[in-house]
């Protein structure tokens, strides 16, 4: 019995070590820029003057500074007069994330949760994620 345990224990340890190595594989695809999520919902009170939307680099290593253009999808956005969206965002050299800070004017929001803001990323020199290049933001007026 003791000999069986002496053989099985090292095999189990080896299996666990090999299994753990597979989980930590770095991203090997083409570097991409993307919003962190496809949708965000923010409750906006009278005291709220901005919301932050994370933008990320998807890559196996940091890159140089990455500049992306931010466009408001006018056909899908119904609260343009209530928001101030920067037309660009930069992920600094050596970083993987940044925040796009959007100004919000509470008084100009529609009552309730009818405020939709749709943003699109575009960039020169780096691919924009096909799935996460657009974000829909719902601003609930409190």
Structure characterization notes:
By secondary structure, the chain is an alpha+beta fold. It has a single domain, classed as Immunoglobulin-like, CATH 2.60.40. The protein has one helix at 2-23, and strands spanning 32-35, 39-44, 50-58, 66-72, 83-84, 88-91, 97-104, 112-122, 127-128, 134-141. The strands form two sheets. The chain has a five-stranded mixed sheet with strand order 5-7-3-1-9, with no helix packed on it. A five-stranded mixed sheet has the order 2-10-8-4-6, with no helix packed on it. The relative contact order is 0.26.
Main attributes?
single chain, 142 residues, alpha+beta, Immunoglobulin-like, five-stranded mixed beta sheet, 1 helix
SSE map:
Layout: H1 2-23, E1 32-35, E2 39-44, E3 50-58, E4 66-72, E5 83-84, E6 88-91, E7 97-104, E8 112-122, E9 127-128, E10 134-141
Parallel strand pairs: 1-9, 2-10
Antiparallel strand pairs: 1-3, 3-7, 4-6, 4-8, 5-7, 8-10
């Amino acid at each position: 019995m003791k000999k069986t345990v002496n053989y099985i224990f090292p095999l189990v340890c080896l299996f666990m070590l090999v299994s753990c190595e597979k989980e930590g594989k770095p991203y090997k695809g083409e570097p991409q820029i993307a919003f962190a999520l496809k949708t965000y919902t923010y409750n906006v009170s009278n005291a709220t003057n901005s919301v932050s939307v994370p933008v990320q680099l998807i890559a196996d290593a940091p890159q140089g500074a990455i500049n992306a253009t931010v466009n408001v999808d006018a056909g899908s956005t119904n609260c343009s007069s209530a928001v101030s969206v920067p037309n660009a965002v930069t992920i600094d050299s050596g970083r993987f994330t940044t925040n796009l800070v959007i100004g919000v004017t509470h008084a100009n929001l529609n009552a309730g949760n009818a405020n939709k803001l749709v943003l699109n990323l575009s960039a020169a020199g780096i691919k924009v994620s096909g799935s996460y290049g657009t974000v829909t933001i719902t601003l609930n007026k409190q």
